[in-house]
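Batch manifest, entry 17 of 40.
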Amino acid sequence: MERDIRLPIKVVVPREDDIRRPESNGGSDKKVFGEVTAEVREALDYQLGSIDAYFRASFSRFPQLPAVAKVTLKPKALAKSHRPTAVFDGNTCPVFGVGRLGELYVRVTPDGLRSLRQRIRTVRSIAGKANLSTIQQMVPYGADDALSLDLARQLESRPGELPTKLKLRLFRHGQGDVDAMVERALQSVLAESGAASAEPVWYGPTLRVYRLRIARPDVVRQLSGFVGTQSLAMFPTYVLRRTASHPIGSLEAADYPSPEPGRDYPTVGIIDTGIDPGSAVLAPWIVQRHQYVPSALIDHDHGSFVGGLVVHSRRLNRDPRFPDWPTSSLFVHRRQLSLCVSRPGVPPTVQLVFKGT
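Output type: structure tokens
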């Protein structure tokens, strides 16, 4: 193959001995991170008893509403394969989230706690004992966990100066009926306080965040102690110190000339939000489009911006540090692709490999 027509891709051909069956010892037991003695079981049972006592008032008021406990794993048992899912499952207190490194969130109910305590006392299987050996500590997720440090400090130093708005984030258990129950319970707590109102704020389909207006400091503690509260904090504030933009003039059509007839240009595949089909200056550069996004959800702003940089980055920025050669063809795609872009002097090619199709 002649050098000037080679594609800028390195092909690694597998050797025959690269493909082989992995060695196997017939399966191995779960790793154990310490002997599971009667004392270990008793200590874990005591911790669960403390969790039950901590949430007793909440369980009495909302019998079906789950609380949350934190399970801290031993430093050497942080790998996902070591998670104690044989102990914390749907019949006891299932794992539904993670916190800090080595910290699991488990859903806690009175029945689940009873089943979990029974399992800890009686499990004798290798997997069960290996799971128990990973646990360093189990504690309730309480008000001190939910209340942000900044808000706690402000309440302590200036108890009479409440922020005008607070940000409350609820736990999401991943079950529609449970999550709906948490939201209903929050409304009940708010109504009972008589000194707070909540407005939902859209942060995404998997989050439930509320903007709170609170009239009394004691309500902050009440809401941070609600078993559905994951965090209660002040909203971040941003202040514009100075502008950093420097207008350099209006963009004219002459800044974006069309491709020169007969000239070969490299081709670039743009995987983005798409380029505005109504853009007169970019349309001549586009050779092909693929669209997998519903028309109602399309926003061409970012894709058009990227397309403009690809075509005439130096003209757009008026800066000699940008390349002085344009790309004649844009292949517009709205899906995850792996991409190869030709170099100057190499015939125009685009290598696109679809992923997840």
